[in-house]
Write a structure and sequence with these properties.
seven-stranded mixed sheet, alpha+beta, 324 residues, 58% helix, 7 strands, single chain, rod-shaped, 8 helices
Amino acid sequence: MLTLIQYNEAECLTKEGLSPAKASELVDSRYVNWFDVEITNKVLVEDTARLFDIHPLMVEDIMHTDQLPKFEVFDKYLFFTTKMLNYVLSEDRIVEEHLSIVLDKNLVITFQEGLPGDAFDELRSRIQLSKGIIRRSKGDYLFHHIIDAVVDHYMKIMEHLRNKIEQLEARSFADPSFDVMELVIDIKKDVNILRRYTLPMRDAINKVRVEGKGFIDKASINYFQDVIDHLNYLISSFDTSREMLRDLMDLQQSNQNNERNNVMKTLTVVSAIFIPLTFLAGLYGMNFHYMPELDYKWGYPLLIGVMVSVAVGMSLYMRLKKWF
């Protein structure tokens, strides 16, 4: 179904649960008309496209949800497609949702996959409460705000991932035995998801600034530069985060090497102590008949005493040398 938000400087109207036919009848040039379509089936998209005279190539891109962000100019519309990303804390993962945006002068149509939630709650609130200049602006400004809301969610996810990396660093320093490798790999996958869509989105928005001038006022073009600045910040954050993850993996490897070295040092100390004891036990374990100590009354206690003295002496010596 469709949701319609119509607004101008004086008023704002919201209608929900519309059919494509009813929605097309409600388009009013006195308002900015924002139709939000949740893609429940192909027929709904085709009906909406037919009633609003949307090009068949747009329909293919709307239905083809497995693609990178891109921008195209058609005779009557601008078309922008990207991915909305939402971090689900309860599942500790990023959820991807395909988003397509169609822009005419005072008509904006967004096509979502219909997953729970989206990036536009704050934008809807700004329209309802008439915050900023959005109610005094045309559809191109709404088009910018929709893209900007998507990018803002990217930045929130990146900030969350940075916090996770910093927490892992602190935990690794506090507990060197803590294994962070699996968590590092999970974060790296999430960073790569963000990176996968951020780079082509920046290229697409650059095309909007150059090729979209017939649909976007000159005053609104500058707002897209602000979105590009946010994307550039994200791109630099990817490099920083990857360096932090690499350092974290190096720290984990160093901790593991230190732990192995400590084990080997302990085994070496124990082996060094038992080498002379083994020699003495082997010497008096020989079966020669004429060994004076074998007939000596205090031979056994004396040998045990010598072995204990050697073990204690070597332990004290190694301790004095700070070998353990």
